[in-house]
């Protein structure tokens, strides 16, 4: 599991990043069930060009991505999986932001993002559960 010292180093690092609105440690390292071979999963949300509508599931690349990834691997001295929240699905984003917060530099943007991806993720889960239940009913009738 990632040490408290490394968590603090990551927090300090993200304080210096003016292009990152918020960042989270997630996955096995955040849950506390990582092994020595586990990588470190870190999710970041870059400040978008426009605040409205909230940017997610967009095909966008940010200039600082490679630099952040390299810096994180240097700080932690291990493999890092960098997830850009501006790009990934709402369900993945909703899961990642349930992790350990490393930085929330813009609470307004974070809360707007959290509200949207949580609602989208919940809607998707409801759809999956309903589809599963309908299939069960149909199979029992057959």
Largest sheet entry: 4 strands, mixed
The helix count comes to: 5
What's the CATH topology label?
Beta Polymerase, domain 2
- Measured distance between first and last alpha carbons: 49 Å
Helix-strand layout with pairing:
Elements: H1 4-16, E1 20-26, H2 28-31, E2 40-46, H3 65-76, E3 80-84, H4 90-96, E4 100-104, H5 107-141
Parallel strand pairs: 2-3
Antiparallel strand pairs: 1-2, 1-4
Helix pairs in contact: 4-5
Structure, explained:
The structure is a single chain. The protein has one domain: 2-Layer Sandwich (Beta Polymerase, domain 2), CATH 3.30.460.10. With 142 residues, it is of the alpha+beta class. The protein is globular and about 60 Å long. Helices cover 50% and strands 17% of the residues. Strand 2, helix 3 and strand 3 form a beta-alpha-beta unit. The termini are far apart. It has a four-stranded mixed sheet with strand order 3-2-1-4, with helices on both faces. The model has no long low-confidence stretch (mean pLDDT 89). It is built from five helices and four strands. GO terms for molecular function: transferase activity. This is Nucleotidyltransferase.
